[in-house]
Amino acid sequence: MTAAIPRRKRRKLKSEINVVPYIDVMLVLLIIFMVTAPLLTLSFEVDLPSSTAKALESKQDPVIVSVRADGQLSLTLPGAKDPEAMDPGALQAQLGALASQDKNLRVIVAADKTVAYEKVVSAMDVIKAAKIEKVGLATDAR
């Protein structure tokens, strides 16, 4: 008698990727983003001072108007090393004279981060009163 040798059937390997867990993860992430997205857009009202300053687009050397924390204004002309302290009337007259010579004169307002925003805007208003159209704000690169 011959004994029957049981033979195991070889299973074929599946070459598929089971995507059900990935779909579950994507749905959970979708729900998380749907819940958190409205929370990221919270805002509050800010009473900003008004000004008519425009963006600056020129490549020549600018005139720099500096504003100190106490509100003192100073003017630095291109090529000058030290700023010259001025009151708003003298600054407006000086900038008006410069603007009459060069219509494309650009002015940059530089202020310390502790300066009140209202003082910066009042300096920009003095610049605009001198009929200068190109005014920008100086910032530090991060």
UniProtKB/TrEMBL annotation:
One of its GO terms (cellular component) is plasma membrane. It holds the Pfam family ExbD. One of its GO terms (molecular function) is transmembrane transporter activity. It is a single-pass membrane protein. It comes from the Bacteria. It is found in: Cell inner membrane; Cell membrane. The chain crosses the membrane at residues 21-44. One of its GO terms (biological process) is cell division. Coiled coil: none annotated. The Tol-Pal system is composed of five core proteins: the inner membrane proteins TolA, TolQ and TolR, the periplasmic protein TolB and the outer membrane protein Pal. They form a network linking the inner and outer membranes and the peptidoglycan layer. Part of the Tol-Pal system, which plays a role in outer membrane invagination during cell division and is important for maintaining outer membrane integrity. Belongs to the ExbD/TolR family. This is Tol-Pal system protein TolR. The lineage of its organism: Bacteria, Pseudomonadati, Pseudomonadota, Gammaproteobacteria, Lysobacterales. The gene is tolR.
